[in-house]
Design a protein that fits this description.
alpha/beta; 2 domains; Diaminopimelate Epimerase, Chain A, domain 1; inorganic pyrophosphatase (n-terminal core); 5-stranded parallel beta sheet; nucleic acid binding; 6-stranded mixed beta sheet
Length: 324
């Protein structure tokens, strides 16, 4: 399949179809919902005669960004399906994405799973929301930002850049953020919504730091059990509030958050300040960015294997960079 790298081809395909269904990944974050909703809102504004739907499971406490549409099986007949912010097909929320007439992938993760009839993948972009904003800007006036679409896209950019703290933030990211803010959106509200946690989530953050183990290599890890989630009244998605916390610690170079699922397996969150972690995640049914990835562990044996792999990667990184 030929790599699709021109926005004009995507726009031409969008103009061709009367029905468009937009998907994103499971367990959505602000970028997944921001890019999905931002694109949907722009297309509805530009093409009011088209049916534009958003598919996926519940968005949880991110419903301030968007909510999903009720999409019937019949809606996929003769429809263009666009999947945003999703590196591989198993992670796509709502597996009916293959039931459309054609499929387009728009993403900013490494293109390890090259699915779709067309693709635009830029793994140097800060977020899929930034890519969608670039698509709009490059459309020669066919598409235009509205305040509601800008709100969603800005939320996605802020979410995936850690409020512009991560290394993926570029000069282009700041310029695009400025254009979104110039539409009149309440950017302060977006930042507040992204950083806000419930009292129960705050308790979980404290518990996770109390139980965090930091190896001499700088690798850190903590396992959050189902019992702890139930004790504090936090669901598995709510546990995502814990993920960034260890990164504030000077002693931590890279870290793992294991969240036990109801079936006894674990969702694994990899984060790093230097060591490359996406190659580690690929060994465990996962992947993602070089410094931020996700994976899965079927049991405690695999949990311990993942921990040992991160310790070795962190030790090797420190030795290479600092001779330690």
């Amino acid at each position: 399949m030929e790599f699709m790298n021109k926005f004009s081809e995507i726009l031409a395909k969008i103009e061709e179809y009367d029905k468009i269904i937009i998907h994103r990944h499971q367990s959505p974050d602000p970028d997944a919902l921001g890019s999905q909703s931002g694109l949907a809102l722009v297309l509805r504004h530009a093409f009011p005669q088209k049916q534009v739907l958003m598919a996926g499971e519940s968005v949880g406490d991110l419903d301030w960004i968007t909510t999903m549409d009720n999409v019937a099986d019949a809606d996929y007949v003769g429809a263009l399906v666009i999947v945003v912010d999703t590196a591989n097909t198993p992670r796509i929320s709502d597996q009916r994405f293959l039931q459309g007439a054609e499929l387009i992938k728009i993403d900013h993760h490494p293109n390890d799973d090259s699915y779709g009839d067309m693709q635009y993948v830029d793994d140097q972009a800060s977020s899929s929301s930034e890519i969608i904003a670039e698509l709009i800007e490059s459309s020669n006036g066919v598409l235009s930002l509205t305040a509601d679409s800008a709100y969603a896209l800005y939320a996605g950019i802020v979410g995936d850049t850690g409020r512009f703290l991560f290394s993926s933030t570029s000069a282009s990211t700041f310029l695009m953020a400025q254009k979104l803010v110039e539409t009149g959106i309440n950017h302060n509200e977006i930042s507040q919504n992204i950083q806000s946690v419930t009292f129960a989530q705050a308790k979980l953050q404290n518990a996770a730091l109390d139980e965090l183990t930091i190896d001499k290599s700088g690798a850190a890890y903590v396992v959050i059990s189902q019992a702890k989630l139930q004790e504090l009244g936090v669901d598995e998605e709510g546990a995502n509030a814990v993920v960034s916390g260890p990164g504030r610690l000077k002693e931590v170079l890279a870290w793992l958050i294991f969240v036990e699922k109801a079936n006894g397996s674990y969702r694994v969150h990899y984060r790093s300040k230097g060591p490359i972690v996406n190659e580690l995640a690929k060994k465990h049914d996962g992947g993602g960015h070089a410094l931020a990835s996700g994976a899965n562990a079927k049991d405690q044996t695999e949990v311990q294997q993942i921990i040992q792999e991160l310790i070795e990667a962190s030790a090797a990184y420190k030795k290479e960079k600092h001779g330690e």
